[in-house]
Protein: mata_hmg
Organism: Rhizophagus irregularis
Amino acid sequence: VLIKPPFPPTINIDDLVTSKPNGDKPSKSSNAFIIYRKAYVKELHSRGINLQMTQISPMVSESWKQEPDSVKAEYKRLAEAAKKRYKEMWPSKQRRRQHRKHQQQQQPLPQSLFIDNSKPT
């Protein structure tokens, strides 16, 4: 039995980037497939179907493969909107990561790492 989530998706962007139950921010925004998976699981639950994720995963994967490009494009649009919203909600995470990367590039190597091979030993 192949189940399709409703289209267009009824997912709220803010629900995709909400804090974790312990109050921490999510590690990153969801991609198109993960958003599709959430919609799929929501549809299963609305039909009273409660399966383990190990059972759901192959079903979602097969359903995603059979979706037309227009459906996938809508989920990709949602993923981009979620990414933008995530950056609005937690801008410091992105800046901190860029700053750290910039710092690492600027640090000179210690002189002890350089060997002068021009002098005979």
Q: What stands out?
A: The radius of gyration is 23 Å. The chain has a mean pLDDT of 79. The longest helix spans residues 69-89. The domain at 1-15+28-91 is CATH 1.10.30 (DNA Binding (I), subunit A).
